[in-house]
Amino acid sequence: MKVVDKMNASIKAGTTFFSFEFFPPRTDEGVENLFDRQDRMASYGPTFCDVTWGAGGSTAELTLEIASKMQNMICVETMMHLTCTNMPTEKLDDALKQLKQCGIQNVLALRGDPPKGQATFQAVEGGFASALDLVKYIRAKHGSHFGITVSGYPEAHPDIIVDDPQQMDKNYWADLHYLKDKIDAGGEVIITQLFYDVERFLKFEKDCRSIGIKCPIVPGIMPIMTYGGFQRMTGFCKTHVPPHISEALERVKDSDEALKNLGIDLGTAMCKRLLDAGAPGLHMYTLNLERSAVSILENLGLISKSKVTRPLPWRRPATDKRAQEQVRPIFWSNRPKSYLSRTSDWDEFPTGRWGNAKSPAYGTLSDYQFMRRHSCSGKWLQKARSAWGESLSSVDDVIKVFVSYCSGRVEVLPWSESMGMMTETNQIQKQLLQLNQRGFLTINSQPRIDGAPSSDPHVGWGGPNGYVYQKAYVEFFCSPQRWHSLQTRLKGAQSLTYMAVDAAGDLQSNIGPSEVNAVTWGVFPAKEVVQPTVVDPQSFTVWKDEAFQLWETEWGKLYEPESESHKVVTDIASTWFLVSVVDNDYVSGDLFKWFDEESANGHA
Amino acid sequence: MKVVDKMNASIKAGTTFFSFEFFPPRTDEGVENLFDRQDRMASYGPTFCDVTWGAGGSTAELTLEIASKMQNMICVETMMHLTCTNMPTEKLDDALKQLKQCGIQNVLALRGDPPKGQATFQAVEGGFASALDLVKYIRAKHGSHFGITVSGYPEAHPDIIVDDPQQMDKNYWADLHYLKDKIDAGGEVIITQLFYDVERFLKFEKDCRSIGIKCPIVPGIMPIMTYGGFQRMTGFCKTHVPPHISEALERVKDSDEALKNLGIDLGTAMCKRLLDAGAPGLHMYTLNLERSAVSILENLGLISKSKVTRPLPWRRPATDKRAQEQVRPIFWSNRPKSYLSRTSDWDEFPTGRWGNAKSPAYGTLSDYQFMRRHSCSGKWLQKARSAWGESLSSVDDVIKVFVSYCSGRVEVLPWSESMGMMTETNQIQKQLLQLNQRGFLTINSQPRIDGAPSSDPHVGWGGPNGYVYQKAYVEFFCSPQRWHSLQTRLKGAQSLTYMAVDAAGDLQSNIGPSEVNAVTWGVFPAKEVVQPTVVDPQSFTVWKDEAFQLWETEWGKLYEPESESHKVVTDIASTWFLVSVVDNDYVSGDLFKWFDEESANGHA
């Protein structure tokens, strides 16, 4: 979707939008850390995130890869910068083609800085000399397909900032008319260069309107995070710094922490003035950092850690292709990126009833270019070994790791792409802990919910005035002995449906092979019942390969192939069962009592 | 579906099946009464119903029409009899073609009686001489498409019953071997001729098994209803009547009522013995009457008026074509036959999400050959006039009729195809009464239900161990003044969504044109949420034409075109609004308070 449409919808609804800008990190580990950060920041619901093109297009390939993952794995509406620097037509054509392919519809068209070693900008052979040329070319070649954003300079482009006030005024207005040309050529949104003088932005905005620019004008905000960085940036951009800001900074410049906090306070005050004066939204230059940008938005009441509103329990990529996606198997709920990757070839997404999906094949796990690339790095191996055991002498050592994960002492397990357990599982943390202590190694679960308001901060999702429901769910590995003993007890449990399978594919279940169980659903005004999460044998069979494989590819590889530790892991992977249990009585069931031998026998 | 498959499923599940046999009545009114009766009897869940071919095929056309309506409007699995009498090949081909067209898959293949005036059976030119020929022909021509049932004669075919015991024994075994031939040729089920001596059936069943007949053998039961009828029937069929039965009948033969009750008791005892001895089901020869057959099944505990189990809130025809039908608009819930007729051309049924339906066009109301044909008869007009008013002098007279309908003093209104209100509306009868007294003429409604057990006798449906839900719904006609005043009040009602339209099509609504609101849904173990009833503007727009038209075609036509009474009706139809209101708060909403001016203002 074009960001201009999202902005206009926000303006119409009387809400304030915000967005985050990132740049391509220089190291692989930096890239992976960025994805983790974006993952968290995306949960606040930015209207879009953008990624810069890197100086001189040097990071073109990496930028495209990051943009694609942002759009398709982080699931945030993504805008990619494009500059003219070192950019012949073929290279631009190629970049736009790739954007189309990965479902990105938004670009920020810039001239960019002169190539290294050159003082002034000159177009490359067969390339573009200005952002205006770029906008015109994209529109000529791709019609209205792309949403095009352009840069606005509240204090004029640094290249034309001069000391002579009369000349400066001329230059300022020439710059404004050039901006108008970019809009007339097809630019739809203006994001401004960073500034610290709100008055200058307000004048700029007024001046834009006076020459007929009607599109959204979004102030670009760069929170002050370090003293040195601030000095360099304002110098480079020739940004006017109001005296009260410089003076305040001078007072705390020796304390990094104090300066950062001051930056948040100053940023908050500045943004508040902008919003009060009518700015429709805020564009945050994050410098790939989280705290300052997020704190400012929190101070403004635009985001709240306890009030994350989710349209669905899971995050859907903002691409047209997946716009109809309504249903997902529960199995990947802790590995959404793996799911997205393995379904990326699907032409059509199951809409509503899962059973109607034409059973498209899941991509193989090996096709999946794992996001957490640092899992191959020495640092990661070291961290993983310290969390999952320098060595393992028996199954009990593995059980201890799962128990530690439940109590929060271990942050990550191979079956989860994110750090820590989901907040909603807090409700059943005690029960999960007991399960793991009993040797049922849980990798996925949800508590039962019998009609919570859709606005509930932990389990709510969807629109207002709805009710959401969940059937209690737990999925775990356990030894064949434990499984057979549990299975006997489950025969007394009328409301429970289960599937158990070992690595070889021996499936034991008390439901039919084509049954699809909706385990999360929501009822909303004037809507059909939305049922976004299901449990079904077909996808379970696909998932189990991935689940068993992760023992080896993530955990086993920490140890020497012939070691005892390695054997402990591979023994589990080759002999244990993966079990999925749903308690269909979401009104009054108690899923966990069946794992307690005494309690279960009392009820059976 | 073939009845043999349904029978085998019942046998496998350890349940007892039953079926009802009817014959084509001689008068139009008789036919319409039969449909009403079948409608009620179908709600008990017979495995199938069958209709006879009439002596000598004289009622062929009527039989086909009745069978088609049974299958497609009454929505019961239907079996049609076919006899050889006066049946050349072309006529049979034509009948089978018609059966295929209307989705009937089951036939009962009989030789039939000799044509009138002939003493023994002779095939017509180019026709069939025996049921065996018929079975062979159907299998040769149509492969396994049709389910074929054949007749079994526990006391041998009447034609070959003789006094000489030795010859009789020979004849009996010859008849059995002929039956075996019919099964070998493709017969799948045996239904027996009526009998009153259970021992003879049990011997017959045993003898059948002894010669290798393996298919279901279903005893045919004709409850004794009149003394004369019983005498004629047993004489004609040469049926052995055990002395205890004849003696008991002789004692009460002078009282019709006593005899009928005795017939029920004797039938119950006889069936109980049959079931105890292992009969898998019962085939009831109803003679188009309800009480005896239903009472016997009730006595046996096979059916219960308070425990009707419905797979869905509405009844779906048992045809392959509609097997996927999962969703219906609420508007036709009191006129299911009209809905079935107007959607009979749909190739595909909306599965799951209504919005995905390719919006097939509804057939026009005039295409709809109204089931209640007697509505054209003088008798019906008289009855309708006495219920809806010999004359109307003002709207108040119309209001009185609706109020009487709510209190049960009027049995039927033009907007309902069945007699009396649905049992679930009893819960809101008081509120509906008040609404009608206030001039909101209700034609459709349902109470809110927040998770009732799916086994609830009034509102339950679907499988066991589920929970069903409903959003409160009411639909009514009211004057423009009442509507505008109500609409103002509804602005204060956050949880209410409404659509109002007049005959000219002026639609006023607080929901989008493509919103689909599920107002009935159920949550079941190991299933997706089933949402069989929806409210949506698209079908409302189709329905409103029908709803407004019924004022004239059903009610207005009771009066002279220029009369005051006629004007009262046409004025309503041309100026009033049809309004549909849903309360989306099924957990704690009170839909009706908004109709009470004082109460609503207090809340607004």
UniProtKB/TrEMBL annotation, chains A, B:
Residues 310-587 form the MTHFR SAM-binding regulatory domain. Signal peptide: none annotated. GO terms for biological process: methionine biosynthetic process; tetrahydrofolate interconversion. InterPro entries: FAD-linked_oxidoreductase-like (IPR029041), Fadh2_euk (IPR004621), Mehydrof_redctse-like (IPR003171), MTHFR_C (IPR053806). Keywords: FAD, Flavoprotein, NADP, Oxidoreductase. Belongs to the methylenetetrahydrofolate reductase family. This is MTHFR SAM-binding regulatory domain-containing protein.
